[in-house]
Design goal:
It holds the Pfam family AAA_25. One of its GO terms (cellular component) is mitochondrion. This is SF4 helicase domain-containing protein. The chain has 10 helices and 7 strands. By secondary structure, it is an alpha/beta fold. It folds into 2 domains: 134 residues, Dna Topoisomerase Vi A Subunit, Chain: A, domain 2; 90 residues, no CATH class. α2 links the parallel β3 and β4.
Length: 247
């Protein structure tokens, strides 16, 4: 069937027998190839001939050996572009399906994806793992400028992680978290505060004082200067406060 391939063909059905390829082409008109050694092996020398296809359906036979071969061949051809026709009474090999008057087009349409969207192998992760090893410092996250001990413990602030700070009332949680967030915010980390206990005016006052590193109550003439600089930080506040409806 190789001589019937066109350069613009993007979909293909692989079979294990010449008569199966003929039956498929006759019944559906799709491009069909018969593997030269059936289900025994897929020689690497054939792989370049199959590179142009975006979707490959493997319909090799109706026994367990054919099913196992189809899964093995799909891994060689790239699971993401392969689909498999599972052997069964209503899905025999193509020639038998044609003889029984079955709808071969429907069987092809119902073929199972070779890859599961929620499962991947190390081969698919390999390059990303190498990237993490090469860029260890970047993967560690944004480091705190004011908390070297925290950097040693947590390595940095990373996207997608949740850190919980606990402690009794008055132990300094809010004061510390304000400084913690301000440190990152000054390095360009977009920060959103959801403070349900302390109102936003008081919280902003605490953070502005920490930002200026001085008591602005005693130097009100400096307020506008520090407020302008503070305003430029990527810092935002939710308007929720106190008890809220769950919805």
């Amino acid at each position: 069937g190789l001589h019937l391939l066109g350069r613009r063909d993007t979909e293909l059905v692989l079979t294990g027998w010449e008569l199966d390829a003929l039956a498929l082409h006759q019944a559906t008109g799709v491009v069909s190839l018969a593997l030269p050694r059936g289900t025994t092996c897929l020689p690497p020398v054939l792989l370049p001939y199959l590179e142009q296809f975006k979707r490959i359906t493997l319909w090799l036979g109706e026994d367990l050996r054919s099913w196992e071969a189809a899964k093995l061949f799909a891994r060689k051809l790239n699971l993401k572009r392969c689909s498999l026709v599972r052997p069964g009474n209503l899905q025999p090999r193509p020639l038998e399906a044609l003889n029984q008057g079955l709808n071969l087009t429907k069987i092809l349409r119902d073929a199972l994806p070779a890859s599961h969207k929620s499962i991947i192998s190390f081969r698919q992760l390999r390059e990303e793992v190498f990237g993490e090893l090469v860029n260890t410092e970047q993967v560690a996250g944004v480091k705190w400028a004011r908390f070297p001990d925290l950097n040693r413990l947590l390595k940095g602030h990373r996207r997608g992680e949740l850190t919980v700070f606990t402690g009794p009332t008055g132990s300094g949680k809010t004061t510390f978290i304000s400084e913690y967030a301000l440190d990152l915010c000054m390095q360009g980390v977009c920060t959103l505060w959801g403070s349900f206990e302390i109102n936003n005016v008081r919280l902003a006052k605490i953070m502005l004082t920490q930002f200026a590193a001085q008591r602005l109550e005693d130097q009100l003439e400096l307020y506008d200067e520090w407020a302008d600089r503070f305003e430029d930080l990527p810092l935002y506040f939710m308007t929720f406060h106190g008890q809220q409806n769950i919805k």
